[in-house]
Amino acid sequence: MNSMISCPYCTDLHTNLGRIAGLTDPFTLNSCKGELKAIEKLTTNEKLLAISEYCIAFHAAGGPPSTKHADKLLSVLGTPSRCTGVTSLCWFLHWGGTSGNTLNDFYSRLFSLRVASAQFAFGVVFGLWYTPLFAVIVGVSKALTALPTKGPKVISQGLGVVLGVVGSVWIVPVGVLGGLMGFR
Predict the structure, then answer these.
(1) DSSP, residue by residue, 103-120
(2) What is the pLDDT of residue 47?
(3) What angle do CA 56, 92, 83 make, to 5 degrees?
């Protein structure tokens, strides 16, 4: 998802996470830009390829892709709950990349003094809410550079839990508010 959204916060974080997980060249994976043929050159793992194909289709559709992709994912992963996990992760990564790029647009407008618009007013609220989260992401990304390549699996798992919880602190209240306001 990140290679298709091109969010600099995500790129830095995910390439460092990939390096720690043992990818020998996470920057090459990130440069695939959602091309399945490029991903196929990096792995022959059937599950990773099915997940990658689903994520590419998710991005192209702007949400869950056709049942063809969902059925293929189910046939490889084996259970609906695992497929739901992949879909949830796709939504989470889509939200993260869109938020990072929106934040960058806000700061670009702020520093170039293009402030006279309704978009800028939205940017102020958005920036006040999300800047702390993305500051944490930048800090974690920098700290990850000190960890060894192919560290213990428990480190990657722990980082996944921590980053999921930290991100949820910002996304859940917005989702609840949207639900209360009737947005679906």
Answers:
(1) HHHHHHHHHTT---SHHH
(2) 84
(3) 60
CB distance 5 to 93 below 8 Å: yes
Q: Tens digits of per-residue pLDDT, 74-117?
A: 999 999 999 998 898 888 888 888 889 999 988 888 888 777 77
Distances (CA, A) of 52 to 16, 33, 45, 69, 128: 19, 11, 11, 11, 33
Q: What is this structure's pTM?
A: 0.75
d(CA 130, CA 147): 26
C-beta separation of 21 from 156 below 8 A: yes
What pLDDT does 80 receive?
A: 92
Contact yes or no for 53/69 (Cβ under 8 A): yes
Closest by Cα among 89, 99, 163 to 131: 99
Which pLDDT score, from 0 to 100, does residue 32 have?
Answer: 66
The parts of the chain modelled with pLDDT lower than 50 are: none
Burial of 157 (0-12, 13-18, 19+ CB in 10 A): exposed
Tell me which residue has tokens 């702007």. 62
- Alpha helices, DSSP H only, in the chain? 2-5, 8-21, 26-30, 36-40, 46-61, 67-77, 80-111, 118-144, 153-180
